[in-house]
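Narrative of activities, Objective 1.

The group set out to show that a structural description can be obtained from nothing but a protein's sequence at a throughput compatible with the screening campaign. Below is one input-output pair from the validation batch, recorded exactly as produced.
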Amino acid sequence: MTFEALKPEIKKIATQNNLSVDERLLNICEVLEANIEYYNWVGFYFKNGDKHELKLGPYVGEPTDHTIIPFGKGICGQVAVSNQNFVVPDVSAQDNYIACSITVKAEIVIPIFVNGENVGQIDIDSNTPDPFTEADERFLEFVCKEVAKLI
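Output recorded for this entry:
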């Protein structure tokens, strides 16, 4: 399925008011993981209250021990500080990478903004080396904008 074809599906999930926010976030993760071949772990991290850390939200993929990530640590922690997209074509080349699984080859993290504040991010791991393009970034920015409306 193409990114354009997935956009209406993401919008539909985001507006399902009969489901909780976490249920909708999980459904978004499931749709992305099921329809994009190289999205092998898809999840959300959100700022943990007033603490300078991220807390794992809904996700699909291998279980992770990284339920809390301090700001600045790993790719997700760096995005919490930089407020910038972070595309990692080769995780083994990153000094500050937190390994979740030996099968992960690449990662992309896109921040979620609500009223100009970075409140969380979508994190995607891939077992495929260097799979992410600018099209992934633009599509995931769209997903994050839809998610921002839920929070």
